[in-house]
Amino acid sequence: MIYLNNAKVNITRFPNGESLINSEDLQINKEINTLKLKFENDSDITHLIFIKGHLDELNVKCRLIIGYMPYSRMDRTEGMTVFTLKHLCRLINNLKFEEVLIFEPHSDVCVALLDRVKVVNMSKDLATTALEKISDNNEPTYIVYPDSGAAKRYGKQIIYDKILTANKERDFKTGRIKKLEMCGTIEVKSFKALIVDDLCSKGGTFMLTAEKLKELGASDIYLAVTHCEDTIFDGEILNGTLISKVFTTNSILSKAHEKIEVTNII
After folding, report:
1. Residues 6+ apart with CB under 8 A from 123
2. What average pLDDT does this structure show over 128-154?
3. The domain spanning residue 236 has which CATH number?
4. Whether the predicted pLDDT of 37 surpasses 70
5. By the 8 A CB rule, do 239 and 211 touch?
6. Which GO molecular function, any one, fits this protein according to its record (predicted)?
7. What element of type H or E holds 245?
């Protein structure tokens, strides 16, 4: 899905599937324009190319905002897989935007590969907002990182004194988590917990982390993630009572739920 200056670009199709974009429907500024990408499928990349090309012909400047950077999972070459993130970043660079703004990149590789890039640390902002809403004087609140990678990233961004980090042991053959331990000191019998990360799919790892937190005395458990896929509806987070609320954005998510609090960024 593409937005130009906060207006959704209407795209129709010919019978053979080719895209039709009416230039008279585009709200174009004379100075700087903003394109926003909410990636749904590869057609969005094609439409981005068409619209940026049209703006170039009009000699107007344009910046790009990306809610979730597509192909962030494909940030290296493994076996016979194609390094798709590298090629997508190269394509975006060739479009020569004035600036590329990315919310919470899943991979730091895309930041290294993109020109004129700026990053919004959205999970930090979500965590800060969540802490303000859930903290009280009755119980302390702990920030919980589901793995060492999250601890390394957000430990630098979020200044907080009550921190727990999950340490997972995986079965190398199946990839499944065999054992999960919590690193850190809990000084009370009852506490609240806020799990912080960048991306949630079905949420299996977050559920295992939450189960361990319950064993350790957590009364209420919350989750703050910038990117939440619709597959969260297929997992146990929303269907159970273990995690009370999810704080996220609309970078990917397209559905609503009473347990999800959405901050709109696109």
Report:
1. 104, 154, 196, 197, 198, 224, 225, 226
2. 92
3. 3.40.50.2020
4. yes
5. no
6. magnesium ion binding
7. strand 245-249
d(CA 4, CA 257): 28
Give the pLDDT band (50/70/90) at residue 172.
low
Going by C-alpha positions, the residue among 26, 19, 20, 21 that lies closest to residue 43 is 19
Instruction: State which of 120, 140, 156 marks the end of a domain.
Output: 120
Say whether pTM exceeds 0.85. yes
Together in a domain, 108 and 132: no
DSSP symbols for 36-100: EE--SSTHHHHHHHHHHHHHHHTT-EEEEEESS-TTTT--S--TT---HHHHHHHHHHHTT-S-E
pLDDT digits (tens, 9 = 90+) for 48-94: 999 999 999 999 999 999 999 999 888 777 777 889 999 999 999 99
Contact in structure between 255 and 246 (CB atoms under 8 Å): no
Q: What is the pLDDT of residue 73?
A: 84
Assess whether 51 and 115 both reside in one domain: yes
Q: The tokens 């959205």 sit on which residue?
A: 122
Number of separate domains in the chain: 2
Bridge partners of residue 20, in order along the sequence: 12
Residues 115 and 147 in one domain: no
The chain-wide mean pLDDT, for the chain, equals: 92
